[in-house]
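user: Here is a favour to ask of a fellow structure person. I have my own habits and do not want them to colour yours. Could you put it straight underneath, so I can go through it closely?

assistant:
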Amino acid sequence: MRFAIVVLAAMAAFLGPNFVRASWQDDAAMMSETSSEPRLVAAMFRSSWCGACRILEPRIEDVREELGESADVDWVRFNFTWGQRDGVRDLAVEEGIEEVYDQFAGGTGFLVLMDRETGQVFEIVTMQYGRDEIREAVERWMLVVDRIEAGEEV
């Protein structure tokens, strides 16, 4: 009996933070509230058992909060916890990024910054990126997308 309680407590301590930090949704319902979708997509490939995700996600969340609602970025989260795949590809199709999803599906512990319209992957953010580097990468690609949309040469 004690062993079971210890195991449950250890699992709660290990997995708990991943379930508490749910500020970005895995479904597209919240993301489709705005009428126009941002061209820059930040797609997180994650799982609750992924060590790199535990390092990277709080950094991404901090950057996301710093940039705020005004940032023209569509934040998408593909959650492969417990081997979940049902509905995850549906989210990719709904977001219009199924090619990138198909390329990276099943991998975890990274954030893909990409152009929704062309499918071009700009950068893959890993746990080696600090908060400042993540913010710089997102801001850099926001500027690039703005220049592309304005018809400027990049």
Notes: The longest strand covers residues 40-46. The helical segments are 2-20, 51-67, 88-95, 98-104, 131-149. The chain has five helices and four strands. The first helix runs from residue 2 to 20.
